[in-house]
Design a protein that fits this description.
- The protein is an alpha/beta fold.
- The chain folds into 2 domains: 5-198 and 291-316, Alpha-Beta Barrel (TIM Barrel); 205-282, no CATH class.
- Helix content is 41%, strand content 15%.
- It is built from 14 helices and 11 strands.
Length: 317
């Protein structure tokens, strides 16, 4: 484990990233994952600078291990978020939902390691040229905003195209998925859906219950017509959205209005009927509520056993 390039680069014990899930990935979850030996991430999402600073400072009190921030590039507060990341001396960020070009020089010059989430080979090559130290190749099996290529197809193509470490994401929730990602050339994995049911995750219990009850075909992708497709669990909201999306008389503004605030309604308010329960296709495999330590160590142990390299049991105590 100590020779893993991602672990060595970031100073973490296990090659496991927690996804930067908007309205969900807060200081408590990030710190718990980092304390478990992985890389916890705080979601900057649409937080203003002071809200993000508050979460960062809270995480610093909860862990002395490395943790990072996920920067959502389409956020109206992205400039503030980047400034706070630099001021708070955050060592690593992941970027998503946009082109990071505008912020790369500032982040790197402030000692921040930038890891970009990509859904295509072309974007992976581009961010490597910009100075990214690694990329997260995220397949369309993942929850939230998705691309078009599956993890199985995307990861090896990105691995072959870049010279920096690749972290696999999308459709990974156990050691089998982690081992498969490593066989494809990835050096680490990122998981979002698996951490939704973590005991330290503050997402509303209604949301957790819906994930725990999900089956293999219980997710759906909406928003393709708007240019930013989203995968979520099927419910009244997604069915109504898809119906309107398929109606040629529905305007893009109507769809945007319908989706506004939907994730918050589900994650914070617990409205799993008219809210958006963003979730990956692997939800059908998530059946238990465990601590972050149990999740990280059990997945790594299973993966390394499958690959013939058992983790020292003493590390799992």
């Amino acid at each position: 484990m100590n020779k893993n390039p991602v672990c060595e680069m970031l100073g973490i014990e296990y090659p496991v990233f927690q996804g930067g899930m908007a309205w969900i990935a807060d200081a408590q979850l990030a710190a718990a994952v980092s304390n478990a030996g992985g890389l916890g991430l705080i979601a900057a999402m649409n937080s203003n600078g002071e809200q993000l600073r508050e979460q960062i400072q809270k995480a610093k009190k909860l862990t002395d291990k490395p943790f990072g921030v996920n920067l959502m590039l389409m956020s109206p507060f992205i400039d503030e978020a980047v400034e706070v990341v630099c001021q708070e001396h955050i060592k690593v960020v992941t970027t998503g939902a946009g082109n990071p070009a505008r912020y790369m020089e500032k982040l790197i010059s402030n000692g921040v390691k930038v890891i970009c989430v990509v859904a295509s080979v072309a974007l992976a090559v581009m961010v490597e040229r910009m100075g990214a130290c690694a990329v997260v190749a995220e397949g369309c099996e993942s929850g939230g905003h998705v691309g078009e290529t599956t993890t199985m197809a995307l990861v090896p193509q990105v691995v072959d195209a870049v010279h920096i470490p690749v972290i696999a994401a999308g459709g990974i929730a156990d050691g089998r998925g982690m081992a498969a990602a490593f066989m494809l050339g990835a050096k680490a994995v990122q998981m979002g859906t698996r951490f939704l049911t973590a005991k330290e995750c503050n997402v509303h219990p209604n949301y957790k219950e819906k994930v725990l009850k999900a089956k293999d075909r219980d997710t759906i992708v909406t928003g393709k017509s708007l240019g930013h497709p989203v995968r979520a669990l099927k419910n009244h909201m997604t069915r109504e959205f898809l119906e309107k999306e398929n109606n040629p008389n529905t305007t893009p503004d109507e769809l945007e209005k319908m989706g506004a605030g939907a994730l918050r309604r589900a994650a914070i308010d617990g409205d799993v009927r008219t809210g958006s329960c963003m979730c990956g296709q692997i939800a059908g495999l998530v059946k238990t509520q465990d601590t972050c330590l149990e999740i990280v160590t059990s997945i790594c142990n299973e993966a390394y056993e499958l690959m013939g390299a058992r983790i020292d049991k003493a590390k799992l105590a």
